[in-house]
């Protein structure tokens, strides 16, 4: 492991200043060996009439998706420690054998810990993004943080062995591993998501003739959409690790449940190293993030007018501010602000999503599980995504495009909010069903020494998970896509981290409402989330639907800059950073 990191640290790049002229792609084995620009550009009439299809996904894209699969296998495999369970299910401090957990934390405490875990894992990507965009690049950042992640997994495995649990070291090991693994996953997630899209070197829409003789438009926006569908499919395939680790914890022990993710994660590291020659990776742009904040600060001091931050404006008006960035960088930042406005509404969505690994698991523990651990059924959400992503990507979306319905990002995100609201409404009804059933009614597992759940089959929960899974296809995948397409060329990781940060804010909101996660208030908890999410979805649509009209224009502007990067790699001149006023 040490040899791998020493090998990769040799390639770490130096820090550049704002006015350093560097090519945004490394001229090494990472760069494309040849770049062809298709001249068969569609006319305006063809753009409006021909069917749009995705381009082929490069090998590097699939390799990056596999790396994310192994990371998510490890991440979700850790959900076994500890599953939140009803306080009433604990018998004299010992866990119910059907509701496994080593620490006996109870529902309220475990729910809060789950939310803290999510909060930490989604705030650390900001740090990982800064390291990548400003200092060492995405690939090197992933390697470094993968080492941190692996060390955290090692801490978790060693403190979960029976001797450590009996010696009282398990809780300390859990907290330490949460902090270490959370830092590691942040550095990986902020960079893997933009790295997979970066593998596709967009050249703008062009016409392709199929074997059938039909002429279609190969649309880079549709290709990016497909890439993130593949990426998210791999995420959820990896998340099924929870099924294996839950049974390992039940039949063998927690140490075995964590040893499996530890081993699988090293397969991802091996793939990252061996597949290096297939990746297209970007050089860091030095102090680009600091420059971005300076642009935003200049705009803020001038009543939001970002034109003031352009070098040409400063030259024409006396040069009050020193501007060490290219002219088009300000336009790129303006486009990224569109994404940031859209992201503001996501925390409410993530509170709903967080119910899957907290209150839904607790709810299952109050139902008849028939010998199935209460945290197995949460995999219904992942299975829904695995089944429906190919259906949406291969059938539904192409069918909509064929009849002229583009189903653009703002529309998809809005539908994601509505499906999440439906999931919470169904969970509320499910909880009401539990309260109406015996033997403990509105205090499930609160009678008969907590040995008997209320007489409702756990399968009744399944539609809640399925609805959340469908909502992810619309809201979460589109959010990743939006973060990548709207971000400046050299700030992909940073803007992606801001999108991931909304999940952390959602987790913080979840912690704030976790005191309501007690019986008999859960009906109102789920109902309130359903109403709040529906209202948020309506407000989101009203405020942002106009962005659908400019979607292609904004993406085309981003591709124009990307094509400049491609031509730079191909040997043509690239305008660098350095114009100063």
Features:
581 residues; mainly alpha; three-stranded mixed β-sheet; 62% helix; 2% strand; disordered N terminus; disordered C terminus
Could you please describe the fold and organization of this structure?
With 581 residues, the protein is mostly helical. The chain has one domain (2-32, 58-90, 102-569): Up-down Bundle (Growth Hormone, Chain: A). Helix content is 62%, strand content 2%. The protein has 21 helices and three strands. It has helices at 2-9, 44-49, 59-77, 107-123, 125-158, 162-166, 170-198, 220-239, 241-251, 254-274, 288-301, 311-316, 327-343, 346-354, 359-365, 379-402, 409-435, 462-486, 492-513, 522-544, 551-569, and strands at 52-53, 206-209, 215-218. Strands 1-3-2 form a three-stranded mixed β-sheet. Strand 2 (206-209) and strand 3 (215-218) form a beta hairpin. Helix 4 packs parallel to helix 7 (170-198). It is globular and about 80 Å long. 51% of the residues are buried. Mean pLDDT is 82; it is low at 1-39, 82-100 and 569-581. It is found in: Membrane. Pfam families: PTR2 (PF00854). One of its GO terms (molecular function) is dipeptide transmembrane transporter activity. This is (Perigord truffle) hypothetical protein. It is a multi-pass membrane protein.
């Amino acid at each position: 492991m040490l040899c791998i990191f020493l090998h990769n640290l040799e390639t770490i790049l130096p820090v550049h200043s704002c006015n350093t002229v560097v090519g945004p792609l490394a001229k090494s084995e990472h760069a494309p060996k040849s770049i062809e620009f298709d001249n068969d550009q569609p006319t305006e009439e063809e753009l409006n009439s021909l069917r749009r299809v995705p381009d082929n996904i490069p090998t590097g894209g699939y390799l990056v998706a596999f790396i994310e699969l192994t990371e998510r296998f490890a991440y979700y495999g850790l959900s076994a420690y500890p599953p939140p369970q009803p306080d009433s299910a604990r018998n004299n401090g010992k866990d119910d054998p059907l509701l496994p957990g080593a620490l006996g934390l109870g529902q309220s405490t475990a729910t809060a810990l789950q939310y803290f875990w999510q909060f930490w894992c989604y705030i650390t990507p900001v740090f990982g993004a800064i390291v990548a965009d400003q200092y060492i690049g995405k690939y090197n950042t992933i390697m470094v943080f993968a080492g941190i992640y692996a060390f955290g997994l090692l801490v978790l495995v060693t403190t979960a062995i029976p001797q450590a649990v009996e010696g009282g070291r398990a809780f300390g090991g859990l907290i330490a591993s949460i902090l270490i693994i959370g830092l590691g996953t942040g550095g990986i997630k902020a960079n893997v998501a933009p790295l997979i899209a970066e593998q596709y070197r967009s050249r703008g829409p062009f016409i392709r003739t199929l074997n059938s003789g039909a002429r279609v438009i190969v649309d880079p926006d549709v290709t990016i959409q497909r890439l993130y569908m593949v990426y998210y499919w791999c995420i959820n395939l990896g998340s099924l690790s929870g099924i294996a680790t839950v049974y390992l914890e039940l039949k063998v022990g927690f140490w075995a449940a964590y040893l499996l993710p530890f081993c699988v994660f090293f397969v991802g590291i091996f793939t990252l190293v061996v597949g290096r020659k297939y990746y297209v990776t970007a050089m860091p742009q030095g102090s680009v993030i600091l420059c971005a904040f300076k642009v935003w600060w200049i705009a803020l001091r001038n009543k939001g007018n970002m034109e003031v931050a352009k070098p040409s404006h400063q030259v024409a008006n006396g040069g009050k501010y020193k501007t060490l960035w290219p002219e088009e960088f300000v336009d790129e930042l303006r486009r990224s602000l569109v994404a940031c406005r859209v992201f503001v509404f996501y925390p409410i969505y993530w509170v709903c999503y967080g119910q899957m690994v907290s209150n839904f698991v607790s709810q299952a523990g109050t139902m008849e599980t028939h010998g199935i651990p209460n945290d197995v059924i949460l995999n219904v959400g992942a299975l829904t995504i695995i089944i429906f992503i190919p259906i949406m990507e291969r059938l539904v979306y192409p069918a909509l495009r064929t009849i002229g319905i583009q189903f653009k990002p703002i529309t998809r995100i809005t539908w994601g909010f509505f499906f999440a609201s439906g999931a919470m409404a169904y969970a509320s009804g499910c909880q009401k069903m539990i309260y109406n059933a015996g033997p403990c009614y509105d205090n499930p597992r609160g009678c008969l020494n907590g040995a008997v759940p209320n007489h409702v089959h756990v399968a009744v929960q399944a539609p809640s998970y399925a609805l959340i899974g469908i909502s992810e296809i619309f809201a979460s995948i589109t959010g990743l896509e939006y973060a990548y397409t709207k971000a400046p060329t050299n700030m992909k990781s940073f803007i992606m981290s801001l999108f991931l940060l909304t999940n952390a804010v959602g987790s913080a909101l979840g912690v704030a409402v976790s005191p309501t996660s007690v019986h008999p208030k859960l009906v109102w908890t789920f109902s309130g989330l359903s109403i709040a999410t529906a209202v948020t979805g309506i407000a989101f649509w009203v405020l942002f639907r106009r962005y659908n009209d400019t979607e292609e224009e904004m993406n085309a502007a981003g591709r124009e800059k990307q094509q400049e990067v491609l031509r730079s790699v191909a040997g043509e001149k690239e305008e660098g950073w350095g114009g100063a006023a």
